[in-house]
Amino acid sequence: MNNAAERAEFWVGATVLAVAAGFLVWSTSGGSLASNLGSGSYELRAAFPNVDGIEAGTDIRVAGVKVGRVAGVELNPQTYYAEARLRIPQTIRLPSDSAALIQSDGLLGGSYIELQPGGAPDDLQPGDEIEDVQGAVSLLSLMMKFVDSQGSEDGDE
Fold first, then answer.
1. pLDDT tens for residues 23-46?
2. The model scores a pTM over 0.90
3. Where are the domains of the chain?
4. Which stretches within the chain are classed as H helix?
5. How far, in Å, CA of 42 to CA of 34, rounded?
6. CA 34, CA 146: separation in Å to the nearest integer?
7. How many helices (H) and strands (E) does the chain have?
8. How far apart are CA 70 and CA 76, in angstroms?
């Protein structure tokens, strides 16, 4: 009986380790495994002054609906802007005057990129850059500006 219990413990432990390793691989892939499986997508680029909270695997939404993921983010050493590569399904064609905005899911939530389609007659092509962008807004810096403005108003009176 002791031998059977040791074998059961071994297999349970091995299963737990295998599941943990699977989660580790899945979480560090940043969604790249899923994006490589489907060839029905294309990439757009967007250069942001600040991408706080955005990384590979971050959601891309249109009208609040998840339509893609960020494929990667790199710093452009010439412009010092963060260039994001956005992977979008082929079925979604965005007008060339569309905008990309970094939004927050709430005070404690993560960030995502919201695409706002424009009204131009021509569409963005694979590899094109979305030029109308709005970077991440830091809630902490906004609160500090508010506190500073309140302090300066009190000192004026």
1. 777 666 554 444 444 568 999 999
2. no
3. 1-30, 37-140
4. 2-29, 32-37, 139-156
5. 14
6. 43
7. 3, 8
8. 17
